[in-house]
Amino acid sequence: MNDVTSRHWKQRQRTRLRELRQQIPTAQRMLWNEAITVALTQGFPVLENKKIGFYWPHQGEYDPVPAMIFLKTRGATLALPEVIGKEEPLRFIEWWPGVPMKKDIYGIPLPDNTREIIVDSIIIPLLGFDEQGYRLGYGSGYFDRTLAAMNPRPLVIGVAFEMLRLPTIYPQQHDIPMDYIVTEQLILFRTDTGLVPLSVADCASRNSFVGD
Questions:
Q1: 4 falls in which pLDDT band (50, 70, 90)?
Q2: Taking the CB of the first residue and of the last residue of the chain, which one, N or C, has fewer CB atoms within 10 A?
Q3: What is the chain's mean pLDDT, rounded?
Q4: Are strands 77-82 and 135-136 parallel, antiparallel or unpaired?
Q5: Residue 204 confidence (pLDDT) above 80
Q6: pLDDT value at 205 more than 50
Q7: Residue 84, Cβ neighbours under 10 Å: how many?
């Protein structure tokens, strides 16, 4: 698939998957949100001492805020992304419950004038994802540019509902795969040959505190 065809295909998929996600009944979404929260908080104990970049949910995305609040009580430092330029990587600014908020250029809440945090792990929303662990985002490329600019590479965990899985997103050279993908059904670990399912216990064993 050439670049032009790939861009058109991805745009059609973005429209389809966004509509599909927004059609999820409220009660079902709540159950799926709770299942992903359990997987994140129990499957990744290493996050309890990390500086975590996450996102403020919109358009029917999984809501990571309850998981992040839990992790903060266990010692995590939390930060939300800020757009500083159309072709620039995101920067992450500190968030905590009750911090004053403002709206960014996309109308998404972010902390108002808090300090910048150099994160070492990122929770990323997936509009779609494929069997090789690549993410279909909204097309702006912010997260790909951010990950490409970070050294060392952070722990990258994508979150999505299982219904948004695709056989492939036809990744391009700039696309960066996730380390893990968490859905309401299971945790997926990326290997060179594709995604491998892990139980919460097995994932926790792989992602315990450094030095444990």
A1: low
A2: C
A3: 93
A4: unpaired
A5: yes
A6: yes
A7: 9
The total number of structural domains in the chain stands at: 1
pLDDT of residue 194: 94
Confidence of residue 106 (pLDDT cuts 50, 70, 90): confident
Task: Determine, yes or no, domain membership for 101.
Answer: yes
Domain that holds residue 177: 3-206
For residue 212, tell me if it sits in a domain.
no
Q: Is residue 211 part of a domain?
A: no
**Burial of 102: CB neighbours in 10 Å, binned 0-12, 13-18, 19+:** exposed
Instruction: Give the CATH number of the domain where residue 15 resides.
Output: 3.40.50.10420
Which pLDDT value is given to residue 211?
A: 44
Q: For residue 21, is it left (φ>0), alpha (ψ between -120 and 50) or beta?
A: alpha
Is 134 within the bounds of a domain? yes
Residues 6+ apart with CB under 8 A from 12: none
Binned at pLDDT 50, 70 and 90, residue 1 comes out as low
